[in-house]
Amino acid sequence: QVQLAESGGGLVQPGGSLRLSCAASGSISTIYAMGWYRQAPGKQRELVARIISGGGITYADSVKDRFRISREYAKNTVYLQMNSLKPEDTAVYYCKVILLSLNGPGYWGQGTQVTVSS
Question: Is the pLDDT score of 35 beyond 80?
Answer without folding.
Answer: yes
